[in-house]
Amino acid sequence: MLANRLSASGEHRVCLVEAGPPDDSPLLRIPAALAVLVRGTRYNWQFQTVPQPGLDGRCGFQPRGRTLGGCSAINAMIYIRGHPNDYDRWAGAGNPGWAWSDVLPYFLRAEDNLEFAGPWHARGGPLSVASLRSPSPWSHRFVEAARNCGIPANADFNGSQQLGAGLYQVTQAAGRRCSAATAYLRPVRHRPSLTVLTDAHASRLLSHGRRVYGVEVFKDNTRHRLTARREVILCAGAFGSPQLLLLSGIGPGPQLQALGIEVTADLPGVGQHLQDHIDYTLNWRRRAAGLHGLAVGTVLRMPGELWRYLRHGDGLLASNFAEAGAFLRCSAGAGPPDLQLHFAPALIVDHNRRPVFGQGFSIHVCVLQPASRGEVRLASPDPRAAPVIDPRFLDDERDLAMLVAGFRLARRIGATPPLAATARESLHGLDNLDTDEAIAAELRRRADTLYHPVGTCRMGSGADAVVDAQLKVHGLAGLRVADASIMPNLIRGNTNAPTLMIAEKAAALILAN
User: What is the pLDDT of residue 425?
Assistant: First the structure.
C-alpha cells in the first residue's frame, strides 16, 4: 500500500523490498486454497514459538505471509476494523491522531465495499470488500443457533454496532482473493517511480550515527546496499520488524551486546509487548450437505466445483471457510466485546495441518483483549535465522478464565438447534468436560494463535515505546515503522484491515512532510 501511495505523484522514487517470491501462483487467488497455503513453505514463513508453559509446554504455530502482500496473501480474508474504543485507547495512551475519529477516514479511503453504504462504508477505494458469494447454509444455521442462545443477529460488524452474530465480509473481488498486493500494487507495477524487488532478504539497516539511510539485502546470493534519500520505512510485521531492528543494533542494549551486535540505539521496547489472540477450536463431526471435509463426497464434487469457480467465481472454492462469527461480551456490565467466534462448515484441527477425515463443523473462540504479554528476540546475529517468538500464551490467568467462559458459550451454541438438529459427534470429548478445571486442561492441550501478533514496535511516548505518533523510531532520523507491530494494544477483531489503515495513515504522514 505504501509503495502505491508514495510513488503516485511521480515525485518520489520508491523501492519495495520483499523477502519472498512474487505472488504469481493461482493458489494465491483462490480463497479456499488457504487450506493448502497454511501447510506450504513457499509463501509461508511457518514460524514456531518457543515451548509455552501455558500450553503444556507445546510450541505454537505462527504462519506468516512470505510474498508480496504479506499475510493478506494467505489469510482468511476477514474484514474487521475493530471497536472504536480500541483506537480511543491508543490515543489516550499518548498517541494523538490515532483516536477512532482520526483513523476512520483512512479505513474509508482504502475500502471499496460492494454491499454496504452510509457513513460507515465507502466505495471506490483499492481494497475490494464483499460478502461471500455462496456461503454454506450451515453458516446461516450458526447465526440462527446463536440467536437461539440470546445473541442478536448483526449483518455488519463494521457498522454502528460490533456485538452480535452474522456472516463476515471478506477482502474478495468476484470471488477472488483481494490481497494488499492485488489491491494496491498490481495496478501500478508499471510506474517508473516504483521498483519492486522480490526474493530479496533484508539483513540489516544502514546507518550513520543516529541517521538511517538505507538497507542491506541478499538477492541472488549477492549482498546489495540500497540507499534512501529521504526515509526507510519498515513494514516487516510483528516478527520481522523487531528482528530487523535488532539485527541493526536497535533494541535492548544488553541483549544486543550478548550477541556481539554493536548498539546503534538502546531502545528497550523493541521486541517487547507481543500480544496475540489465543484461540481454541471446538469440532463436531457430522454428515450433511453443505459441510466440507476430507470425505469421498467432497472429492467427487471437486471437478464440478473447480469448473463452477472458474466460470462464475463462486461455490466451495470461493469460501474462506471461516464464513460466520460473533462478537460477545462475557464480562459483567455493558461495554465492548471481549470474545470473538469464528464458524467454519468444516473440521479444523491443528491449523488444518493434521488431516481429519469426514465432514463436520467447527467454532473457534478467542480472547479479544488478552492480558498476557510476550516478546520477540534474536536467535543469533544471522539474519536468515528465524526469530525467537515467545507469546507467553495463557501466562495471565485472566486469559484462561475468559477462554473457559468462551468455550462454554461456544459449546452451547454448537448444541443448540439448528446446529444440533440431528445427531453429531464432538471431537476430543468436548461434550464430557463438565468442570472449569477439565475445560482449562483441554484448552492448555489444544489452544493456539489466531494469527494476530502485534505490539513489538509499540507506538507511544514512554521509555518502552519504539515509535512516536508519527511512526518515527525514537532517537533516530530517517526511519519509520508502519505495520501491526506498532499497535499499542490489540484491536477487537482480525488485524488485516487495521494494518492497511496504519499504512494509509503512514502514507499521509510521510507525504505531509
Answer: 85
158 and 184 housed in the same domain: no
Residue type, 418: P
For the record, the C-alpha cell of 242 comes out as: 523487531
Of the candidates 446, 463, 483, which is a domain's last residue?
Answer: 446
Strands 250-251 and 265-266: parallel
Q: Which parts of the chain sit beneath pLDDT 70?
A: 422-423
Q: Quick count: other Cβ atoms within 10 Å of Cβ 203?
A: 18
| Closest by Cα among 457, 512, 39, 22 to 250 | 457
Residue 423, pLDDT score: 61
Do 354 and 497 belong together in one domain? no
- Bridge-based pairing of strands 479-481 and 232-234 is parallel
- Counting the structural domains of the chain, the total is 2
Which residues on adjacent β-strands are paired with residue 2?
none
pLDDT of residue 354: 81
Count Cβ atoms within 10 A of the Cβ of residue 129 and give its class: 0-12 exposed, 13-18 middle, 19 or more buried: buried
| Spatial separation of the C-alpha atoms in residues 265 and 102, rounded to whole Å | 31
Same domain? For 228 and 103 the reply is yes
| Catalytic residue set | 452
Note if the pTM is more than 0.85. yes
What DSSP character marks residue 275?
B
Could you tell me which of 341, 344, 403 has the C-alpha nearest to residue 372? 403
DSSP code for 511? H
Whether residues 114 and 153 fall in one domain: no
CATH number assigned to the domain comprising residue 97: 3.50.50.60
We report the CATH number of the domain holding residue 148 as 3.30.410.40
Closest CA to 324 of 144, 182, 87, 479: 144
The answer to the question of residue 373 being in a domain is no
Last residue of a domain, one of 446, 462, 483: 446
Query: DSSP 3-state assignment of 327?
Result: strand
**pLDDT at site 334:** 86
Please indicate, yes or no, whether residues 197 and 310 belong to a single structural domain of this protein: no
Q: Distance between CA 110 and CA 128 in Å, rounded?
A: 9
| Cα–Cα distance measured from residue 75 to residue 322, given in angstroms and rounded to the nearest whole number | 10
Q: Do 411 and 428 fall into the same domain?
A: yes
- C-alpha gyration radius of the chain: 22
Q: Tell me the backbone φ, ψ of residue 437, rounded to 5 degrees.
A: -65, -40
Domain region containing 318: 133-167+278-367+395-446
pLDDT at residue 234, rounded to an integer: 98
- 358/505 Cα distance (integer angstroms): 46
Handedness of CA 362, 363, 369, 373 (dihedral sign): negative
Same domain, 199 and 248: yes
Residue from 156, 148, 453 nearest 325 by CA: 156
CB 326 within 8 A of CB 341: yes
Check if the beta carbon of residue 66 is closer than 8 Å to that of residue 20. Answer: yes
Please report where in the chains the cell 477482502 appears, as a residue.
171
Handedness of CA 162, 168, 172, 178 (dihedral sign): positive
Provide the grid cell at 282: 471446538
Rounded-to-integer distance, Cα 279 and Cα 292, Å: 21
The confidence score (pLDDT) of residue 426 equals 87
